[in-house]
Amino acid sequence: MSEPTRTSQSTRHATGPAGAAARTPAAAVAPTSRHPLAAAFRVLITTAALTGLLLAALATTGPAQLLTRFTVQAGVASVLVSACAAHRAWTGRRPVSPRLTGALLPFLWLPALIHHAFPAADSTAFTLPAATTPGVTQALCHQLLYTVVPLAALADWLLLTTPRGFRLPYAWQWPAYPLLFLALTLAFPATSGAPSPTATTALSIGIAICALPLTAIGIDQVRPAPRLHNNRISPTGISPLK
């Protein structure tokens, strides 16, 4: 016979309705907390990322080859994660795991950092291919994928999520795929249709890949908690004061 689950002293001796309430999981009785403003903001992030991807497809002669670019892969991840987060905020379900939302931040900021701060690396597989006829479409696409979406994802994290959700193991988990992608671009540059980065450029990208997760985790540990609506008026468990 299995050993009964240990409970608190007050729960073990409680009987009647009070005992039943004490043994009921908090998630089963807690009221649904919906966040329509957060949901609307995340829908805007989804729309901006999806628009940028569509414009990128229109600005190039080989839309299928875009899937081999890191910027496009990060944009697709942004669409999926932001749409899921918007749905959960609207319906009051549990938020998306910080493991996913946190990984999205360096994924979006890496190509943005390369595009704005490393002009020599702007022709690598981490960025978008050059358009056949540069114009308004390409400029708007770059603004959305390199500026608007990363900044919006940063604002969503800082203003609409609770802090200290990132864990130290994420510092080596999040860079795993970008580092693998960098290794593949060095070993097989023809697969992405972009020239292989030089040793200096590859080193700069590798440092950025490792530094962005550490920066995000460090900021998450010290940033203040946003004032989110909280429906809980008392702690769970049996207490004379309710």
UniProtKB/TrEMBL annotation:
Report whether Transmembrane helix shows up as a keyword of the record.
yes
Composition bias (Low complexity) maps to 14-27
Transmembrane parts of this sequence: 39-58, 70-90, 102-118, 144-162, 174-192, 198-219
Indicate whether Transmembrane appears among the record's keywords. yes
Q: Where is the composition biased (Polar residues)?
A: 1-13
Report keywords, A-Z. Answer: Membrane, Transmembrane, Transmembrane helix
As given in the record, the signal peptide range reads none
Renumbered residue ranges of the record's region Disordered: 1-27
List the protein's name: Integral membrane regulator
The organism's taxonomy opens as: Bacteria, Bacillati, Actinomycetota, Actinomycetes, Kitasatosporales
